[in-house]
Amino acid sequence: MTTPAYSYSCLKECPVGDFTFSGPGFCIDVCPVGSYISGDQACTSCPENSSTSSTGSTSIDQCICDANFYLDGSTCASCGSGTTTSTGSTSVSQCTCEANSYLGDSSCVSCGSGGTSSSGSTTFSQCSCGAGSHVGDLQCVMECTTSGVAACFASASNGDELELSPGTLSSTDGIIYYAQLTLQNKYAYIGCSNVDGAACVWQGAGGKGVLYIKDNGGTTTLSYLTVEGGDTSVGGGLRVQNSNVVLIIITLLDNSAVQGGAIYVLENGSSNLSLHGCSFGGNTASSGADVSNKKETVVIGSCPSGKPCRPSHPLNQPFTNNSSPLPSPPHHRLCSNPRFRPEQQQR
Predict the structure, then answer these.
(1) Counting runs of H as helices and runs of E as strands, what totals does the chain give?
(2) At a CB cut-off of 8 Å and minimum separation 6, what does 236 contact?
(3) Tens-digit pLDDT profile for residues 50-83
(4) What is the pLDDT of residues 159-185, one digit of tens each?
(5) 20 to 30 Å CA-CA from 167: which of 8, 11, 75, 292?
(6) pLDDT score, position 342
(7) Cβ contacts of residue 144 below 8 Å, gap of 6+?
(8) Domain locations in the chain?
């Protein structure tokens, strides 16, 4: 005798040969497009970014990736800015990249600021870097002055790399009254071109902090900069809100605030801050002269593989409910290394 098919949550048994779908008491004879019959004889939706080509599928193996996605292990991964000619792609090589991008390891990647390429490019070597940019490791790098970083950032796209010539930023960008420079609503790599000689200095002013990073939607990476002289209520040197931020060989000097003289991480949204070889000096605050973190994540990061790294003095900080384990007391680390991106230290 055949047992009627029903789902675990079904309140009414379905007739023999029918299957349950989308809630108790709803019975159908075949599973619709985008689903397949599972072991408990209920119709189960295909994994994200996949579907079936017809009704009546009986196995998850009949779920294929949607257009502009490809099978990566057991999931369907996006081609990024690229496209596929049809559904059911099983390799990133089936992604065709749009103009001004090329095929990376797992998706299409932008040539970077000022970079151009033909559609269908498969390597960075097929990108050409225009005036005001030069060839970097994996993308074109925008050439900027330190004083002009705000204008460069405004013209950049997510993930662009900005290289600053030595100099001083001492005027406000006018976006937020309590910060000299605001980097918001996008993310970029920003670093000084001279890692050993003249400095790239971002300077605060009376009543203004130096830098505010807000709602960046990715990871903002700053390297080989001096952030000094900020004076505001919270985060004299750097205020972080709802953003992921990586600081590499950043010097924070003589910044002041009520909370977080050098750095303040707000609890609004979700933030992660990683420090690699940063140094602090002369910062003052009623709470957390160096770092004040409110229920977000601050990580004392390591130096790149093979580069010397040594503990320096303990950070003057309160870390409130920090979700990342820290040494007690936390020490920032000093390291001697070229400018690097976080992913490069794992290669």
Answers:
(1) 1, 33
(2) 204, 209, 210, 230, 255, 256, 257, 260, 261, 262, 283, 285
(3) 999 999 898 999 999 999 999 999 999 999 989 9
(4) 999 999 999 999 999 999 999 999 999
(5) 292
(6) 40
(7) 151, 152, 162, 163, 164, 165
(8) 19-65, 66-131, 146-346
